[in-house]
């Protein structure tokens, strides 16, 4: 691995600054879009609930089907070009959404747009690995997560404000415009040198085929202890969280907190908590994966369980406090998890690692909410959320305790797998 150290402030890095700006514009546009689509199909067209339930499936299913292949494409191609293609194709398809007059048109457009958008994340993560020195990777990751979480707070609020005076299709057009602007900004980065050659064989003479590159990515993930355990550990935690994440309105309804403002307040508080911890983590250059990933998940789990103990007689400040705890844990987990994948992967493998992660996580976002709904219907929201919360908290504690074993770096890693760069054989 590179041990590049930079004394230049991160935002003095013009390449990163431009990419960060493009990412921020794109994220905020996406939140406008999601809110507008939900309101348009639910209220404007009064669509069937079953069809509305297919919208998140159209967002997640492409990740399951094509996520790992998008990662291979990111490692084999010029990453900036892929990101530009993703942004501009998203802009065109989003404009198509404006002219859609029924949810039957919206669903296939969303599926195609999500499929083409898959190439953006692994390409962006891989490009970050090329343009940001290793000692600034944690800072870069935290800044991206700040944008992501602030988008969850500000995006819906601004979108709701605009929707009070304008139509949902105006918000959708705003997203198309943001994707167009993001692509234009990225266009200025096309001269970046990023080792974009396809992976080669062990002799460094012949380029690996697309299939072999895909297999090499999976082999790296499965045989690299730090990467594999980070993904597996987080996958288990996210699966548990997604079982109940969409059931909190049911919980609040059961304790006579039916006002939608209460749920919105809890979501906003969670976002604020995430931003606070992400900003705090921005001061570090290294983190201990077990304590960060495990500790973050523990806070999420125990925060969930705490909300489930709230009763009608309690002050609203109690669930707000536990929502803040969830936000703290969410911020720590997101930054540490993404940082672990990025830092512990060689530059030539980052796209495939994030593509594989996207693929397995997308499956969770489809399966777990449905399963959680069945569990809550059968056993009740309070019991299920309390149980899941304590399970997630316990998993996090186990991760922190077993950190030295779960996240032990193997010195003999090159004997297990070798990554070949354009110059020949290089060890991971």
Concise overview:
The chain has a two-stranded antiparallel sheet with strand order 1-2.
What distinguishing features does this structure have?
428 residues; mainly alpha; two-stranded antiparallel sheet; globular
User: How is the quaternary structure best described?
Assistant: single chain
Number of strands: 2
Span of the ends, CA to CA: 6 Å
Nearest-integer average pLDDT: 79
Radius of gyration: 22 Å
Largest sheet: 2 strands, antiparallel
Helix content range of the residues, please? over 70%
Shape: globular
- Spans of at least 5 consecutive residues whose pLDDT stays below 50 are 412-428
Strand order of the largest sheet: 1-2
Number of helices: 16
Strand content: under 5%
Structural class: mainly alpha
Give the ordered list of helices and strands: HHHHHHHHHHHHHHHHEE
Explain what the structure shows:
With about 425 residues, this protein is mainly α. Helix content is about 75%, strand content about 0%. It has helices spanning about 15-45, 50-75, 80-100, 105-115, 120-130, 135-165, 170-185, 210-225, 225-245, 250-255, 260-280, 290-310, 315-345, 350-380, 380-400, 405, and strands spanning about 420, 425. A two-stranded antiparallel sheet has the order 1-2. A hairpin with a 2-residue loop joins strand 1 (about 420) and strand 2. Helix 3 runs antiparallel to helix 7 (about 170-185), helix 9 (about 225-245) packs antiparallel against helix 13 (about 315-345) and helix 12 runs antiparallel to helix 15. It starts with 13 loop residues before the first helix and ends with a strand. Mean pLDDT is about 80; it is low at about 410-428.
């Amino acid at each position: 691995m590179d041990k590049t150290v930079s004394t230049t402030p991160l935002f003095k890095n013009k390449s990163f600054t431009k990419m960060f700006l493009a990412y921020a514009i794109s994220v905020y546009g996406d939140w406008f879009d999601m809110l507008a689509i939900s309101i348009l199909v639910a209220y404007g067209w009064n669509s069937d609930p079953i069809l509305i339930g297919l919208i998140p499936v159209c967002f997640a299913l492409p990740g399951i089907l094509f996520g790992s292949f998008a990662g291979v494409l990111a490692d084999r191609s010029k990453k900036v070009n892929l990101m530009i293609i993703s942004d501009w194709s998203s802009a065109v398809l989003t404009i198509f959404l404006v002219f859609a007059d029924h949810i039957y048109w919206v669903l296939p457009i969303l599926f195609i747009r999500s499929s083409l958008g898959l190439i953006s994340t692994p390409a962006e993560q891989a490009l970050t690995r090329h343009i940001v020195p290793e000692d600034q990777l944690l800072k870069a990751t935290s800044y991206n997560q700040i944008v992501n979480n602030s988008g969850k707070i500000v995006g819906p609020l601004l979108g709701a404000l605009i929707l009070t005076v304008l139509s949902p299709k105006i918000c959708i057009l705003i997203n198309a415009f943001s994707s167009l602007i993001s692509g234009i900004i990225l266009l200025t980065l096309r001269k970046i040198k990023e080792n974009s050659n396809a992976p080669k064989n062990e002799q460094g003479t012949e380029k690996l085929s697309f299939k072999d590159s895909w297999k090499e990515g999976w082999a790296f993930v499965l045989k690299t202890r730090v990467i594999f355990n980070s993904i597996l550990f987080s996958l288990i935690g996210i699966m548990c969280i997604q079982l109940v994440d969409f059931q909190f309105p049911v919980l609040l309804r059961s304790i006579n907190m039916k006002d939608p403002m209460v749920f919105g307040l809890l979501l906003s508080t969670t976002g604020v908590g995430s931003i606070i911890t992400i900003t705090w983590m921005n001061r570090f250059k290294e983190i201990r994966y077990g304590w960060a990933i495990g500790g973050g998940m523990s806070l999420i789990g125990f925060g969930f369980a705490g909300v489930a103990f709230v009763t009608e007689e309690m002050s609203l400040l109690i669930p707000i406090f536990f929502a803040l705890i969830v936000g703290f844990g969410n911020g720590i987990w997101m930054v540490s998890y993404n940082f672990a994948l990025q830092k512990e992967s060689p530059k030539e493998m980052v796209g495939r690692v994030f593509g594989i992660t996207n693929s397995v996580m997308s499956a969770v976002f489809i399966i777990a909410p449905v399963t959680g709904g069945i569990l809550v219907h059968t056993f009740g929201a309070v019991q299920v959320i309390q149980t899941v919360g304590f399970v997630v908290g316990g998993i996090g504690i186990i991760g922190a305790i077993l950190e030295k074993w779960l996240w032990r770096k193997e010195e003999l890693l090159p004997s297990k797998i070798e990554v070949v760069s354009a110059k020949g054989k290089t060890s991971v």
